[in-house]
Specification:
Layout lengths: L1 H38 L3 H37 L6 H24 L1 H8 L3 H15 L2 H16 L4 H23 L9 H25 L17 H31 L5 H38 L2 H37 L3 H33 L3 H25 L9 H27 L2 H8 L2
Helix pairs in contact: 1-2, 1-7, 1-10, 1-11, 2-3, 2-5, 2-6, 2-9, 2-10, 3-6, 3-9, 4-5, 5-8, 6-8, 7-8, 9-13, 10-11, 10-12, 11-12, 12-14, 13-14
Length: 457
């Protein structure tokens, strides 16, 4: 009976999550390729990509998370047979994306101020700043691609995103090879070449997706860009009102990893490089529970829409349990593969040893991370986004970052633990987040006021 219910609830969840996983892996693969190929050149180039990516990734995820509101708006329009509203929605989402690109680009341009404040080694800081300035050229394309991606996902067309993301990854590899190592007459740019190659891939993906939504038969009747709409403050504020709590929640978690990378920037390129290898590999595996969490948002939201509080609770419970089982498998894979994986990233023995040790330590937080991201996904299905933001802010920054800094550099009974102290802080912060979010799922799904609201649906 239990197995039948588990299959009933989790097989559809898995089928929805798999295309999302493919697209996530393809896009995350660019970061993996950058790290792998820069690491083969030198530890300094690897460290520069690590420090630069630690600034870029949370800013990118803030834009991505905020624009996720577009997916919900498109889905509602599709469900209500109001497809004529989609040109306005997509174009206003594009204006929101453009608005967010401006401060993002400024932060990336003036990143040397941040690196200097955080004490990042000068050679690493200079190269990381140049890497970020190269990436700025791809920001507008990346933001526009995300707006169109949300349109496709809201229309339940995920496969084009997967294929276009794969095409971007396939372009990124030879572009990296030419620009990093100086082939075909180009100068050897190292880490900076990673930035230009990735920016080129972003423009390529945006162009392909634009052509798809303009000329593909199912989108052509929508005439998305036949009439151009100027910025509409009310529509833009609606997108920001729904999306900003999601974007900020994702940003808070990502910025935890960023701040830790910047804090250890003064410990030398070996420590930064080893830390980046471990983060890069664990982030790749994290795409599995993240995709499940996004799918769980859809499934819980659908159950809530039917008016059944008990069904919504079952969907959330079985989804989170499935995510726990998947995380145990991923943790075992991480533990067993760590010694071999680090050989792919760097030829430096010191970097390899440190990265392998950190990856094996990450086994503990991988489980907590899977639980918290799926609990947060379930809560978003209940439209409980602001509490998620508050819980993550407390857990990641007060427990994770402050506790990690105390263990790494502070006056604690065990002495300064260096980079390991920050990883102990990650484990504590993600564990706190998992416990609090699971508690919130339990209380929200049993909230009498919520159940009464559903009964009146």
């Amino acid at each position: 009976m239990l197995l039948a219910r588990f299959r009933h609830y989790n097989l559809p969840l898995l089928m929805l999550a798999l295309p999302l996983l493919g697209a996530h892996l393809a896009q995350t693969g660019m970061s993996v390729v950058d790290t792998l190929m820069a690491g083969r050149l030198s530890a300094v180039d690897l460290a520069a990509v690590a420090v630069g990516s630690s600034v870029f990734m949370p800013l990118m995820l803030l834009i991505f998370g905020t624009l996720l509101a577009t997916t919900a708006l498109v889905a509602q329009a599709r469900g209500g047979n109001k497809l004529d509203t989609l040109p306005m929605t997509v174009q206003q989402a594009s204006w929101v994306a453009a608005l967010m690109v401006l401060p993002t680009g400024l932060i990336m341009y003036f990143s040397p101020v941040v690196f200097d404040f955080m004490g990042v080694a000068p050679d690493v800081a200079d190269l990381a700043a140049a890497y970020l300035k190269a990436l700025i050229w791809g920001l507008p394309a990346l933001a526009f691609f995300q707006a169109l991606r949300c349109l496709c996902e809201g229309m339940n067309h995920v496969r084009p995103i997967l294929l276009i993301s794969l095409a971007g990854l396939l372009l990124n590899i030879p572009a990296n090879y030419v620009l990093i190592y100086g082939k075909l007459g180009f100068p050897q740019l190292g880490a900076v070449g990673c930035g230009y190659a990735t920016a080129l891939s972003f423009w390529f993906m945006a162009l392909l997706l634009t052509l798809y939504v303009v000329y593909q038969s199912r989108y052509r009747p929508l005439a998305l860009f036949a009439r151009l709409f100027p910025p509409h403050p009310k529509e833009m504020l609606n997108i920001l009102w729904i999306g900003l709590p999601i974007g900020l929640s994702i940003f808070v978690e990502a910025s935890l990893f960023t701040t830790i990378t910047l804090f250890i920037g003064g410990l030398g390129e070996i420590v930064v490089a080893g830390h980046q290898v471990a983060i890069n590999f664990t982030t790749l595996l994290f795409m599995v529970p993240l995709s499940l969490g996004m799918a769980l948002t859809v499934k819980v939201g659908h159950a809530v829409g039917t008016g059944s509080a008990e069904e919504a609770r079952r969907v959330a419970f079985y989804g989170i349990t499935f995510a726990l089982l998947v995380s145990l498998v991923m943790a075992a894979l991480m533990w067993l593969s760590a010694p071999g994986v680090v050989l792919l990233y760097s030829e430096n023995t010191e970097v390899q040893l440190l990265a392998a040790a950190l990856i094996q330590l990450a086994v503990l937080y991988q489980i907590s991370d899977a639980l918290q991201v799926n609990a947060a996904g379930a809560l978003r299905g209940y439209k409980d986004t602001r509490v998620v933001m508050l819980i993550t802010l407390f857990s990641y920054w007060l427990v994770g970052l402050a506790g990690g800094w105390w263990l790494a550099m502070g006056d604690n009974p065990w002495g300064p633990q260096g980079v390991y102290g920050f990883w102990y802080g990650l484990i504590m912060g993600l564990t706190f987040a998992a416990l609090l979010l699971l508690w919130r799922v339990h209380t929200t799904s049993r909230n009498p006021r919520f159940i009464n609201m559903l009964s009146d649906h």
